[in-house]
Amino acid sequence: MRKLKITLLDVFNLNRTFLNKTILFFCFFSLSNISFSQNLVLNEKEYFETQGLNVLVFSNEYNGMFFDEKTAGVEFIHHGVRTVTGGAVRLHNTPEQWDLIPKMLSRKVDKANNSIEVILRYEDFDFDSKMIVTPKGKGFVINVVLDKPVPKELEGRAGFNMEFLPTSYVEGNYIVDGRVGTFPRYPASNTEIKPSSQKIPQFAGHNTFDDRGKNEYIVTLPIESGRNLIFAPENPERTVKIQSEDQEVMLFDGRNLAQNGWFVARSILPSNKTGKVLTWYVEPNVIPNWKREPVIGFSQVGYMPTQNKVAVIELDLNDKVVTTASIFKLSEDGKFVEKFKGDVKVWGNYLRYNYAQFDFSAVKEKGLYYIQYGNQKTNTFQIEDHIYDNVWHPTMDVWFPVQMDHMEVNEAYRVWHGKPFLDDCLQAPLNHEHFDGYKQGPTTDTKYKPLERIPGMSVGGWFDAGDFDIQTFSHVSVINSFVESWEEFKVNRDETYIDQKTQYVDIHRPDGQPDILQQIEHGVLNLVAQVENIGHPVRGIVVPNLHQYHHLGDASTETDNLPYNSSLKPYESDGLSSGTLDDRWAFTNRSSFLDYRTAGALAAASRALKGYNDELSAKCLVLAKNLFNEANEGAKDKKLDNSPFSDYSRGSDMVAMLQLYLTTKEDQYKTGFLNKIWNSLDENLKGNMNSALLAIPYMDDSYKAKVHDYALKYKANIDKETSDNPYAVPVLKRSWGGSSQVITGAIVNYYIHKFYPDVLDKEYVYRGLNFIFGCHPYSNLSFVNAVGNRSKKVAYGNNRADFTTIAGGVVPGLSFLKPDFFENKDDWPFFWGQNECIIDGGAWYVFLANAANELAEKK
Question: Tens digit of pLDDT for each residue in 333-352?
Fold first, then answer.
């Protein structure tokens, strides 16, 4: 009798088989309880819908500058959440941002036949494809039609892709032809290396992969493939079925190539075939009679006792408004008791939802509260006198220090980054189209030759946003705003140690100097370096390679920090220099716009720095006057308009003259300003009102009286502009969120209230903060990281791959997907239009928070 020999591998295989069968049984049991979607209907907004599902077909196009923003093609809004995007003919298994995108030639909405037809074109390959989407059964059919066969160079490469948001599917399951798998939390599928000669070029010949000179690139390999795929069978809210008539559907994990990659379902288009070449049947599950939960918008920071308090309730169109809501307060015995009950008033429809308002301004007692609406209750918030005292501290204490370029930044046990970009910088090459909007024209407008080193530039400045470039106009905006905060409120908080000599920053360590003056100094140092070493302010300074630009983590590792030496080979170093061409490039085409605006910022900084750094203060004023004069001369013969800013030059001289007058009190600047301001207000009241208001304390009574008339017009305009939404603030409908516009609008309102309280009351200021702090569409999270009881958990900072935030950053907020969908993901940080914090937005927020605090102190 033979003995049965069982190895550890046998046990594992038995367990794995049992596990797969168990998962498969569970999945099919779940599927048997799922009722797939009701019939889709083409609505008047030109997308398909049924209760619980919207299917958009190129309602939004790919972006010519940023390429694939994951907001185009066939997309799902599935039970209120956008989970699927990028349904289109693509040329890669898992497209990265800068891979080629198709241009939409036409989009035909056929209401008679209940279909949408789109023609896409890849210009580089003279390749057109037609995509027709038509409802069928409880789902829809996607047909790809070709008039000409796939070009030879795209055979085996052109395919139809559909991308699934990882955070909606990770740790769930998929079934491919009956085989069960799990969507991994972290990418771990297979890749392979191929020669670069086989790669389809990316934008303008750039390359996202640092191949170390080996002429290779990475290709993702499929996790699974088959004809029948089911996504998330265990989760009725996310279940999607895909069936392919003609081609295998492969499943990929795009995160192997890029942290912002998605799961991709893909079928290769057949070669040597025309007509209908691919058919997918797609069936997203819809929960019967599904309704989106109400979103109760309110300030996560809270309210002052005397402040108006209006919660805005966002409702599914199929939901009924509950007629009353209540306010509960924490009592002394630790229990919450009802303190107020009031009517909920219907506001009406706005875009895709219905809205109601709950006014609880009558609640004035200090304490801790929550709102009860129907079965929902919010998280708690406060009503206190000094609610705005410290809401700006994380922005100044943490976010701005972390953004400081050319400095080592430490926080307690953590080093945010070492000293970056000590190899700054090289002159950008001629006639070069770069990424992120940078371009160099046919001349350098400097004394430097292309790729020649520009000395003295490794000083000062801030990283513009979640990337690591220096954008000069953003610096100008920050410096102007910080000077306004200093002069208006004398914010003398000291919580940061900043040493320019050793280029070291230590967060939460006071050093005896006001942080805001140290930040003004830091920004000015880079502007001064530009003017002194380059000859004028520049568009920006950015790394030359895409494989650097998408860098995440420690900024000091984005370059080797060694000056470029052309006599050395790439990746070779003599210890003092390097043959690696990774030094940032300065894009130097000159513009009167930047000259004027930089002159204004330096003039303003000169005032703030006087008494703190007198030498730098004096230098700022000299450079400001010189720049202003040079800009005047250049504007006469249009020699300074070779940059993307040339269209914005009008009015910039007025801004510079105002700041120069405020600093010098010289009549020539005052006269110049007064000669410009009235026509400027007539041409662009919204854009120039802030300048008009800033000048009031330095002008006579007749000036103030004349501006009063414009303030009345301004109020009428903003009342009209904000009447279209229930939040009573300007809500922008674009891909980049409008938080900054809400903040800057509230700042103008502050100045109007300060000088003309008869025109605007304080509530016009508080509304802006309420919106930023949570009273906005989509969610009620605070858009300021780590401020308020509930704030953003993820943001597009340099640590975005860790799915976290940098405290104090202000996210753009709500990106708009045409025709009617606002979105702000808090599980996916990689949407920069929603989640990327920028330096000028942070500076404006610091001002607004201090403005609100000042108003609060004036009873």
Answer: 999 999 999 999 999 999 99
Tokens of 157: 């490469």
Q: How far apart are CA 809 and CA 724, in angstroms?
A: 28
What is the CA 430 to chain-centroid distance, rounded? 30
Residue with tokens 């891909």: 735
**What pLDDT was estimated at residue 248?**
96
Q: Residue 5 burial by CB count (10 A; 0-12/13-18/19+): exposed, middle or buried?
A: exposed
Residues of the chain with pLDDT under 50: 1-37, 640-648
**For residue 55, what pLDDT is reported?**
98
Domain ranges of the chain: 41-189+223-284, 295-383, 405-589
Q: Are 250 and 265 in contact (CB under 8 A)?
A: yes
Give kind and range of the element (H or E) at residue 164.
Answer: strand 159-164
Residue (of 316, 306, 343, 348) closest to 327 by Cα position: 343
Beta-carbon-side half-sphere exposure of residue 246 (alpha carbons within 13 Å): 17
Determine the Cα–Cα distance for residues 770 and 782; give it in Å rounded to an integer.
Answer: 9
**CA 130, CA 150: separation in Å to the nearest integer?**
12
Q: Which residue type does 343 have?
A: D
The whole-number pLDDT of residue 856 equals: 86
Q: Which of 187, 144, 142 is nearest to 274 (CA)?
A: 144
Hey, what are 813's tokens?
A: 């907020």
Please say whether the beta carbons of 638 and 657 come within 8 A: no
Residue type, 193: I
- Identify the bridge partners of residue 338 per DSSP, sorted by sequence position: 328
Concatenated DSSP letters of 434-502? -STT-EE-S--SSSPPTTPBPTT--S--B--SSS--EEHHHHHHHHHHHHHHHHHH------EEEETTT
Q: How many H-runs (helices) and E-runs (strands) does the chain carry?
A: 17, 40
Burial class (CB in 10 A: 0-12, 13-18, 19+), 569: exposed
Q: In what order do the strands lie in the sheet with 275-284?
A: 103-110, 115-122, 127-136, 139-146, 275-284, 240-244, 228-231, 173-176, 179-182
Q: What is the CA radius of gyration of the chain?
A: 29
**8 A C-beta contact, residue 657 and residue 672:** yes
CA angle 461, 467, 470 (to 5 degrees): 30
Closest listed residue to residue 406, CA positions, set 423, 383, 393: 423
Q: How far is CA 377 from CA 416, 571, 813, in A?
A: 38, 59, 24
The residues near 145 (Cβ < 8 Å, ≥ 6 apart) are 129, 130, 131, 132, 275, 276, 277
Q: Which of 615, 619, 589 is nearest to 602 (CA)?
A: 619
The CATH-assigned architecture of domain 295-383 is: Sandwich (2.60)
- What is the per-residue burial (b if ≥16 Cβ within 10 Å, else e) of 356-377? bbbebeebeeeebbbbbbbeee
The pLDDT, as a whole number, for residue 36 is: 44
Comparing CA positions, the residue from 787, 776, 786 lying closest to residue 742 is: 776
Distance (Å, rounded) from C-alpha 827 to C-alpha 804? 10
pLDDT of residue 739: 97
Q: Are 194 and 217 in contact (CB under 8 A)?
A: yes
Concatenated DSSP letters for 116-129? Answer: EEEEEEEGGGTEEE
Q: Helix, strand or coil for residue 859? A: coil
Query: Tens digits of per-residue pLDDT, 462-509?
Result: 999 999 999 999 999 999 999 999 999 999 999 999 999 999 999 999
Spatial contact of 608 and 640, defined as CB atoms under 8 Å apart: no
* 295-383 has the same fold as 41-189+223-284: no
What is the residue whose two structure tokens read 């350098």?
444
What is the Cα–Cα distance from 328 to 335, expressed in whole angstroms? 9
Which helix (H) or strand (E) segment holds residue 368: the answer is strand 367-373
Q: State whether CATH 2.70.98 applies to domain 41-189+223-284.
A: yes
